[in-house]
Amino acid sequence: MATSKSRKSPPLMKPDRDRRFAAEENPFEAMMSRFDDAAARLKLEPGLYRVLRAPEKQIIVSVPIPRDNGEIEVFTGFRVLHNTSRGPAKGGIRFDLNVSLDEVKALAAWMTWKCAVVNLPFGGSKGGVICDPSSMSDREIERLTRRYTSAIIETLGPDSDVPAPDVNTNERVMAWIMDTYSMHKRHTVTGVVTGKPVAMGGSLGRRDATGRGCLVVTRSALARHKMKLQGASVAVQGFGNVGSTAARLMAEAGMKVVAVSDKSGGIYNRKGLDIADCLKWVNEHRFLHGYRKAEAVSNDELLTLQCDVLVPAALENVITSKNANAIQAKIICEGANGPTTAQADVILDAKGVYVIPDILANAGGVTVSYFEWVQDRGGYFWDEETVNDRLQKIMMRSFDEVSEMSEKHKVSMRIGAYMLAIDRVAAMHRMRGLYA
Ligand code: GLU
Questions:
Q1: CATH number of the domain within which 293 lies
Q2: Which residue is closest in CA terms to ligand 1's atom 7?
Q3: Same domain, yes or no, for 100 and 61?
């Protein structure tokens, strides 16, 4: 999370509120259109279809906090539990100006499908607060986190709903959630959130897990296309936790990372970037803007660069019907949630671009969140090698299961992943029956 206020910021892209309401880019519709397609192919019973469409619980809260200048400001927060048939709800919390109920509903459902794709004993949830953390001090973010946590405290708990980091939240924020929840419970409950600092019940390997998972499935996808990992070129959009880790691990594995970007813009070097050096620059300057050892490119240009693999690892709706035709990558590994619209899917399919869908590609994060939850509950902690080995095993197995589904039904990897997920969640509903 950006916390340093003293440095001068480069001009940033303003969140474009109107864009969010364009029909193609409504995240809930984007999720539902894939769900409908997969459900129809599975011949899902109409009753179950209705159950799985509807989120179980939607909470909207006002979050008043005093700003540092003494003024009271009231923020709006959400927590949506989409489905808990397979286990406690699991899903991150984001702090962002673009948060909306529709977005949180879509992201909660995506968590249900994601956990089912990698076969974790969790349901799906998501939370968010409409705010601009880059304009807030650490103390204000702490107050916001604690007040939001207490507003949704009834839903939280290791057996009911377990948050984690997402856009603009991090280990620090998870520590405050854990502390606030524990103060209410009158004892320490580490298992109420994942993505915590390792020293307070977090898991080794959690911070890198999403990016590491991206590398594992990219390796499988390259092998499937008989392409070599060594030297394969990759462009990464987004240089937050997921994008920067994916870029670093892919470079370490021998791939050639030709471009990376953040909200200040992108940088490109045909011969490959020195990712360690880029990370050092961002550590010192907060943004990639101004990095001199590469050409500047815009975020839009980065997406259509010539490369073998494109990793969109920032926000939703970056690959749309407007630019899908111009994509040159052979493989897209979706590090972000919902980066591709349903209309863009059709264009990419027709072009033969192989998309590793978000609910598979970025599931490494929640997989290690699951490991963290298991370790907290058992009170016994694993070494990093064990975490990474088990993560790799789950990601490789899930990739193969999604591939099998997509081949069997002659559908894209995305629809294959939805079919696998819906099938698993529906099976649980059939076994449990309907309590009425
Ligand atoms: N926010 C991450 C995601 O979208 C992680 C969720 C979790 O670990 O619970 O997958």
A1: 3.40.50.720
A2: 366
A3: yes
Burial 250-264 (b: 16+ CB within 10 A, else e): bbeeebbbbbbbbbb
Residue 95: CB atoms within 10 Å: 27
Domain with 295 in it: 209-361
Question: Is residue 411 domain-resident?
Answer: no
**Is residue 97 a part of any domain in this protein?**
yes
What would the mean pLDDT of 270-294 be, rounded to a whole number?
97
Residues serving a catalytic function are: 126
Which atom of ligand 1 is found nearest the CA of 165?
1
Instruction: Please choose, from the candidates 91, 261, 110, 79, the residue with its C-alpha nearest in 3D space to the C-alpha of residue 166.
Output: 91
Q: Which atom of ligand 1 is nearest to the CA of 370?
A: 8
- For residues 182 and 213, membership in a common domain is answered with no
Q: How confident is the model at residue 2 (pLDDT cuts 50, 70, 90)?
A: very low
Nearby residues of 163 by Cβ (< 8 Å), 6 or more positions away: 91, 92, 93, 125, 127, 156, 174, 177, 192, 193, 194
Ligand 1 mean position to 254 CA, how many Å?
A: 27
Burial 135-148 (b: 16+ CB within 10 A, else e): ebeeebbbbbbbbb
Residues with CB under 6 A from ligand 1: 90-92, 164, 166, 194, 337, 362, 365-366, 369
Q: Ligand 1: which of 95, 96, 104, 111 to mutate, judged by most atoms within 8 Å of the beta carbon?
A: 111
**Best probe residue, ligand 1, of 366, 372, 375, 391 (max atoms within 8 Å of C-beta):** 366
Instruction: Judge if pTM exceeds 0.85.
Output: yes
pLDDT tens profile 93-107: 999 999 999 999 999
Mean pLDDT of the chain: 94
pLDDT value at residue 9: 46
